[in-house]
Design goal:
Blueprint (H helix, E strand, L loop, with lengths): L5 H19 L26 E6 L5 E3 L2 E3 L1 H14 L4 E6 L5 H13 L4 E6 L3
Parallel strand pairs: 1-4, 4-5
Antiparallel strand pairs: 1-2, 2-3
Length: 125
């Protein structure tokens, strides 16, 4: 008894095409933030003069010691402090409701200045 199933061949062809397109497709991966984490064996001691504490509010405003700082002022502040303290560490305290794009922009500004030591944490956490 011979079974002629035209849908079986079509199913096989569809399956092969799906595999083909998956194999040749280029997947766009988002790398996120590439951070080097400190070693547990070598705790890093940060001098008080080398620490710059910033805060990012839920409105997306940056502040230094409670005083608001604009993007241009932050840029100048980072440049000035890096000259005075080459081992400067920037600590950024984040409000949990901060707009994501403002967080990314702030980190972008810090990375543009080539700050090697950077840390951030959620406020109250």
């Amino acid at each position: 008894m011979k079974v002629n199933d035209p849908m079986g061949a079509l199913n096989d062809l569809s399956f092969l095409l799906i595999i083909y397109f998956l194999v040749i497709a280029g997947f766009n991966t988002n790398r996120g933030f590439l951070l080097n984490l400190p070693s547990r064996d070598k705790p890093r001691i940060v001098q008080k003069d080398d620490l710059l504490k910033l805060a990012l509010s839920r409105e997306g405003e940056i502040s230094l010691n409670g005083e608001p700082v604009t993007g241009e002022e932050l840029d100048a502040l980072l440049t000035q402090n890096l000259k005075a303290h080459p081992n400067m560490t920037v600590f950024l305290s984040l409000d949990p409701e901060v707009p994501y794009q403002k967080f990314v922009d702030t980190i972008g500004t810090i990375r543009e200045k080539r700050v090697e030591n950077f840390s951030f944490a959620m406020a109250g956490g």
